[in-house]
Fold this sequence. Notes:
- The structure holds 2 protein chains of 2 kinds.
- Chain A is mainly α.
- Helix content of chain A is 34%, strand content 4%.
- Chain A contains 3 helices and 2 strands; from the N terminus they run αααββ.
- In chain A, 16% of the residues are buried.
- Chain B is α/β, with parallel strands linked by helices.
- Chain B has one domain (1-477): Amidase signature (AS) domain (Amidase signature (AS) enzymes).
- Chain B has an 11-stranded mixed β-sheet, with helices on both faces.
- In chain B, strand 7, helix 8 and strand 8 form a beta-alpha-beta unit.
- In chain B, helix 7 (216-226) runs antiparallel to helix 15 (461-474), helix 9 (301-316) packs across helix 11 (351-364) and helix 9 (301-316) packs across helix 12.
- Chain B starts with 5 loop residues before the first helix and ends with a helix.
- Classes of the chains: A mainly alpha, B alpha/beta.
- The interface between A and B is large, with 50 and 69 residues.
Amino acid sequence: xxxxxDDVRVVARLARLEFSEKQxxxxxxxxxxxxEYMATLDEVDxxxxxxxxxxxxxxxxxxxxxxxxxxxxxxxxxxxxxxYADYFRVPKxxxx
Amino acid sequence: MAPPxxxxxxxxxxxxxxxCEAVVDAFLQRIAAHKHLNAFVHVDADGALSAARQVxxxxxxxxxxxLAGLVLAVKDVLCVRDWPLSCGSRMLSGFxxxxxxxxxxxxxxxxxxxxxxxxxxxxxxxxxxxSSWHGPVLNPRAEGYVPGGSSGGSAVAVAAGLCHAALGSDxxxxxxxxxxxxxxxxxxxxxxxxxxxxxxxYASSLDCVGPLTHTVHDAAIVLDAMAGQDERxxxxxPTRAPHVGQKWLHDACGLRLGVPEEFFGAGLDAGIQxxxxxxxxxxxxxxxxxxxxxxPHTRYGVAVYYILAxxxxxxxxxxxxxxxxxxxxxxxxxxxLEELYARAxxxxxxxxxxxxxxxxxxxxxxxxxxxxxxxxxxxxxxIRQDFDQAFEAVDVLVAPVTPVPGFRLGAMxxxxxxxxxxxxxxxxxxxxxxxxLAVPAGVHENGFxxxxxxxxxxxxxxxxxQLGDLIVRLLGQ
Lengths: 96, 477
């Protein structure tokens, strides 16, 4: 499966990553090589085989619901790069 | 002088020949003397000494905790309250954990003394410990060669005698492979045996927390202390801890060993093959029944793993956006929100992490999902069936850990696919969810350590540990 540089640009946009043109070219080649290798899975007949989504499909347990202390505001903000009062400060989202 | 195992320290403490404080002090001196290995990213000397004094007081008062004297390092992907947590990434520079991971909390409660966090591949993505923002980790047993990864710092910390034990994480071999390349013991428990709460997620359906140690006994002790269900991880399992205790084997009588033929094909180093044959001969002589078995889908393991793991990673790493914590780029005041996300992630993540996020985003994207992700999930079912069928005929499987005894620093960083293929013998255990133990099995003619891998049925860690211990004794190591 050959990946095009346009594919790389679309996927980068989805992943919220940006690359230089040179990096895009390199990624195009690397992803093509890896995906070509992954195409070996086409050899495997998986007709009628259920996808494995988890190691053990066990019924989830239920526990009593008790109120417990969580992470307080001070702790939650402790690692934030930019804050205002009790808030995380982020760039303007609406408008120009 | 060889650094002590935990059993040595325990005996010395019992004799009154040392104190926890003296033990910690000796390790701290060794850590300082081995800085060039780059095994640690954070050392808390004051905290470790003060924890040691506290355990000494408890001992003096007759209330010694069960792990009194155990000096532990923790891979830099597990939360330790108030300590820096970076996952080997610029993305988390300056971050400090708000709580203890469950595995860490349980070990602390059992008296373990934490000395610091160990270096690793960025976000545990790698097989060489070269992709860390803190620089590569060096292998003390093989100069110029990688220590393996991603838990390379943990393996080196144990191999160089900088602690008794270290925690690692294993998503596709990241405990077993560095353990083998550094000549130490590494255990990847059954998926669900140890809580993942407080482990920074790479691929949630595959991630496991486990110990790296000098001896199999020490691995059993650390596993016992941290295993068990945790209400904070819904995938942790209410099965009792393995409690290997003192039930060690005198011989291998009655043990049914399977040798999976797919693990011994082209690409396996002749010296490693010879070492494993030697182990099997000795086990046979000790009474084991050895037979060949087949795990026919092994050859698809790497493809399945790198589709599923990168897909899960692309989702798990979506949380790193530079808003609530983590790296925020220069000039962010003049960016809009979209620009900030992209810039923070592009400058915060390293090359391999970005490559995997791209790959994972691609295989999950519209039009490719069925061809890659859904297909890989189906082949994963077949890989698990292979193990289920093999375990109908045998108790455990014996195999190599790595195809080669090591590779040079920088040898594979330009060819990601070659690096991925080095995980051939380890990834299938994660895909099937079974436990795997790597133990030293001799020395290669080039002087490098060789590891042997024992794979078992889910929750059969006790048997893996018993057999691993027996192998070590049969080899007279």
